[in-house]
Write a structure and sequence with these properties.
Shape: elongated
Pfam families: YjbQ
Protein name: YjbQ family protein
Number of helices: 3
Family: Belongs to the UPF0047 family.
Helix content: 10-25%
CATH class: Mainly Beta
Organism: Chitinophaga pinensis (strain ATCC 43595 / DSM 2588 / LMG 13176 / NBRC 15968 / NCIMB 11800 / UQM 2034)
CATH topology: Jelly Rolls
Order of helices and strands: EEHEEHHEEEE
CATH superfamily: YjbQ-like
Distance between the termini: 5 Å
Radius of gyration: 16 Å
Number of domains: 1
Number of strands: 8
Strand content: 35-45%
Length: 140
């Protein structure tokens, strides 16, 4: 069994859904040595999230942002937590809905994605800053 872990700092991105698969793969060259295993990608933040979805058509990412902006609106007078502005509490709610990690099977040194799948950074803040990820891989 091989186990390794790397950190990745993603540069600040605008609010929205961003493909980060290539950046994740870049920091884990050891992946090519795993015949069968798993990879967990974890984000160390409470106002951004991760998910796996469509990696080809950019309109999917635009529609994700549109949907979540409607589902969890800003400036709701019922929010008590607004220390960092009107996007603060909605960002926490969106992150809770999508989650802080993704698991990806590894097969023959590559992610075993289905067709058109990739890892999204879901940036829920207008100015979220850099985002830190912990990437853990294990397998044979």
């Amino acid at each position: 069994m091989k186990i390794f872990q790397e950190s990745l700092v993603l540069q600040q991105r605008r609010r929205g859904f961003h493909l980060i698969t290539a950046e994740v793969l870049q920091v884990i060259p050891q992946l090519r040595d795993i015949r069968v295993g798993m990879c967990q990608v974890f984000i160390q933040h409470t106002s951004a999230s991760l998910t796996i979805n469509e990696n080809a058509d950019p309109t999917v990412r635009k529609d994700f942002e549109m949907y979540f902006s409607k589902a969890v609106p800003e400036n709701d007078p019922d929010y008590e937590h607004d220390d960092e502005g009107p996007d603060d509490m909605p960002a926490h709610l969106k992150a809770a809905m999508l989650g802080s990690s993704v698991m990806i099977p590894v097969r023959n040194g590559n992610f075993a994605f289905g067709t058109w799948q990739g890892i999204y950074l879901c940036e829920h803040r207008n100015y979220g800053g850099n985002r830190r990820l912990v990437i853990t891989v294990w397998g044979e």
